[in-house]
Amino acid sequence: MNVLTKPEDAAAIVAELGRRAREAAVALRNASTEAKNRALADAARLIRAETAAILAANAKDIEAAKAAGMTEALQDRLLLNDARVEGMAKGLDDIVALPDPVGAEIESWTRPNGLAISRVRVPIGIIGVIYEARPNVTADAGALCIKSGNVVVLRGGSDSFHSSRAIVELLRRALKDAGLPEDCVQLVPTTDRAAVGEMLRATGWLDLIVPRGGRSLIDRVTEESRVPVLRHYDGICHVYVDRDADIAMATDVVANAKMRRVSVCGAAETLLVDRAALDTHLMPVLSKLHELGCEVRGDSEVQKRDPKATAATEKDWRTEYLAPVISVATVDGVDGAIRHIATFGSQHTESIITGNEATARRFLAEVDSAIVMHNASTQFADGGEFGLGAEIGISTNRMHARGPVGLVELTTYKNIVRGKGTTRP
Amino acid sequence: MNVLTKPEDAAAIVAELGRRAREAAVALRNASTEAKNRALADAARLIRAETAAILAANAKDIEAAKAAGMTEALQDRLLLNDARVEGMAKGLDDIVALPDPVGAEIESWTRPNGLAISRVRVPIGIIGVIYEARPNVTADAGALCIKSGNVVVLRGGSDSFHSSRAIVELLRRALKDAGLPEDCVQLVPTTDRAAVGEMLRATGWLDLIVPRGGRSLIDRVTEESRVPVLRHYDGICHVYVDRDADIAMATDVVANAKMRRVSVCGAAETLLVDRAALDTHLMPVLSKLHELGCEVRGDSEVQKRDPKATAATEKDWRTEYLAPVISVATVDGVDGAIRHIATFGSQHTESIITGNEATARRFLAEVDSAIVMHNASTQFADGGEFGLGAEIGISTNRMHARGPVGLVELTTYKNIVRGKGTTRP
Questions:
Q1: Is the pLDDT of residue A2 over 60?
Q2: Quick one: signal sequence residues (chains A, B) (predicted)?
């Protein structure tokens, strides 16, 4: 593995990545949809054809991980097999099928002086993606950036270095064959952590950093970066069961929101129950959760009714379990739910279950989260489920993009003004 | 003037501003258009009624500025008079008349599983505006934020402290009378520079910083801020005169782009002339500039033809003069112009003058600036001229908003998802 130790080396390496990225960006910005799709389709073909080579590179990473005593769970994230490689190739094919956002007109209008103004989507420019063990991010992020006209500099986890390098080589080969610069996709060729620091200071050429990983990575990037960051922070998602909720619907939706997959960012972590629904709705919902193997931590009202519930503390209201555990709080109607979410939420995804349209409208208007839902499972917080196709992540930023970030959200716009020799008085 | 020196004080003051801002933000986010308009119209009325008090406060600032030896030009920026106060009040009336962007649906679609998804504009949240001597920014920025549902914390220049305080007091009185929290607008009550540092680190409650001022302010904010920044950097704007340009149109547009007002960010700084147009277009354009009192600095081809032109150096291509000076470079057609702009431009505003639609299309597509124009003066780079109404500035960011930032650009969106008890398989 190409590990460097001298900080000067990291600086020089990142500067060279930048020089190449800037050159590639000019061509990619103006590339035709056809050329981009050709490169992506070819990359999918190469990934399928070179499955053995990818798996061999991955085996090196797995071997090193085992030697380093990596946990089974992390090893599973790192592991590639035939099905997972096919999944990557399929992901590229899916991105080929998505519409190209570049060049689309967002809006247009004409001024009284005759100036015709339009806003047209253009690529953001050069995006740095900093991620951890999952090698499939290499293909996903690379392809999303290519399709949206953005040059990407990938900084994968050191654990997945060989796997990522094998995948990047195929993307670059496909780019070249399609007549696009291979430097549209570059992998930081060192696992030196100093290279990350260099990227975070590269305001001269890097337009955006997308960190994908655990809290400590996001924290480091947020603290150190001088480059704008599109980030995903906590997903402390809430489901509020209102007095006017259908009991069967509440039971289904809460069970799905919490237990379908407990490890995704859209999984519900806290159930809020209307005080007026405690005696009718609470136990059907909790019984179903118990049946599915979910631990329940509740306030005193909940404990009074559910003998299996343990005591929730304030820390529970602030915890993203990502596990089969749910905290349950009693609130005074929709106002109480809105207040609880404002106090303890992470502005990710919240859902209200109610048959009352007026109550739903208040919740949807006043809960200030990236995604607010009515009678739907929080597990729909996902680019694919939104119909965006692939996503590079869910943004909990307030600026630029909130919620799922797909191709469109990876673009910005320019203002085009057309006159007839028009001058300003 | 309330100048504090202990850094602890600045930290405590800014923390208290934050506490109040967060409380006010909940009410303002959900305020009706009517309430916001009532507050703004009332503020305009109060500003007119209290002109004498505002001028008295401004006189204190001017007196201190004179004593400190401030230049005449800066004193003029600081000075208020009846006409300028009326201009502020008129500015508020204009913002009342603009449509409220909050709650507007950007797009909506339905998924095959029946989920109805929409993206709806919501306020960004809490915005910090850090500005220099111009006291009118207090009213403009305050009103734009109120109308777009954003709480604003204003940090005016110490030179304009009394003027800004007088204006903020009237805005707060109007907010209160309209039933909105007066803390929707707060002025940092100290001129201690440490307070700016505290704002730049206030990621816990501040959603956006908008610096308005000179290069050194922007540089400090860019370097230090942990809060996202919407900034306006250099405006090294170019006009390219193509071989297919109408000579009279080129002459008019260049003269307007450079000389209408030389101090605005959209003023042209560099003229690019197609080598194929040197003998036909150059001298008519330059003669007009000379006639208007503009200094010309050109490359050797320009100097050969214009005896009054002095020699331009590479530094000229990188200079925003904001003065009656223009640099003139010969380029090889539209490709040369695109290359020159990519190398030396600041991605603000560039215009092509040509009668050739294909050439114009290439320029508009390939020049990667916030605003690209065809047959129009770069001096139209302005929110009012775009029809946005008032603007808080021109963004040279690539993310979130590019070009003029008006009410719409001061919002973000939330994703609203409506189901029928929908769960994810």
A1: no
A2: none
**Pick from B223, B360, B412: CB nearest A398:** B412
B120: in domain: yes
Q: Is residue B401 part of a domain?
A: no
pLDDT 10s digits, A360-410: 999 999 999 999 999 999 999 999 999 998 889 899 999 999 999 999 999
Residue A83 lies in a domain: yes
- Within 8 A of B397 by CB-CB distance, chain A residues are 228
Shortest CB distance from B402 goes to which of A371, A413, A421?
Answer: A413
Note whether B106 contacts A: Cβ–Cβ < 8 A: no
| pLDDT confidence of residue B8 | 66
pLDDT score of B7: 58
- Residues A189, A278 within the same domain: no
Mean of per-residue pLDDT scores for chain B: 95
CB atoms within 10 A of CB A69: 6
Which amino acid belongs to residue A284? P
The number of domains in chain B is: 2
Tell me if A201 is assigned to some domain. Answer: yes
- In 3D space, the residue among A397, A410, A387 whose CA is nearest the CA of residue A143 turns out to be A410
Is A415 close to B111, i.e. CB distance below 8 A? Answer: no
Q: A163 and A270: one domain?
A: no
Query: Would you state the structure tokens that stand for residue B211, as one six-digit string?
Result: 């610096």
pLDDT (tens digit, 9 = 90+) per residue, B54-66? Answer: 999 999 999 999 9
Which of A26, A420, A424 comes nearest B375 by C-beta? A420
ipTM: 0.93
A55 and A181 in a single domain? The answer is yes
CB contact under 8 A, A423 and B370: no
Q: Are A161 and A191 in contact (CB under 8 A)?
A: yes
- Looking at the fold, whether B148 and B264 belong to one and the same domain comes out as no
Residues A252-284: pLDDT tens digits?
Answer: 999 999 999 999 999 999 999 999 999 999 999
Hey, of B111, B151, B422, which one would you mutate to test binding to chain A, going by the most A CBs within 10 A of its CB?
B422
B422 CB neighbours in chain A (<8 A) are 253, 375-377, 380
The CATH number for A127's domain is: 3.40.605.10
For residue B369, the chain A residues in CB contact (below 8 A) are 414
Q: Same domain for A242 and A196?
A: no
pLDDT at B215: 83
Interface of A with B in 187-246 (CB under 8 A): 203, 207-208, 222-223, 226, 228, 230, 246
Closest Cβ opposite residue B399 in set A371, A412, A416:
A412
| Chain A nearest CA to B308, separation (Å) | 26
- Which of A257, A386, A419 lies nearest to residue B376, judging by beta carbons? A419
Contact A376 B115 (CB under 8 A): yes
On whether both B202 and B253 belong to a single domain, the answer is no
> How many other CB atoms are there within 10 angstroms of residue B119's CB atom?
18
Best of B362, B399, B420 to mutate (most A CBs within 10 Å, chain A): B399
Tell me which of A124 and A219 has the higher pLDDT.
Answer: A124
Q: Which of B184, B211, B186 has the alpha carbon at shortest distance from B196?
A: B211
Q: Is pLDDT above 80 for B3?
A: no
| Residue among B250, B266, B234 at smallest CA distance from B352 | B250
For residue B259, the chain A residues in CB contact (below 8 A) are none
Q: Tell me: do B165 and B46 sit in the same domain.
A: yes
Q: Is B418–A380 a contact, with Cβ atoms under 8 angstroms apart?
A: no
Q: Verify that A17 and A164 share a domain, yes or no.
A: yes
pLDDT value at position A8?
A: 66
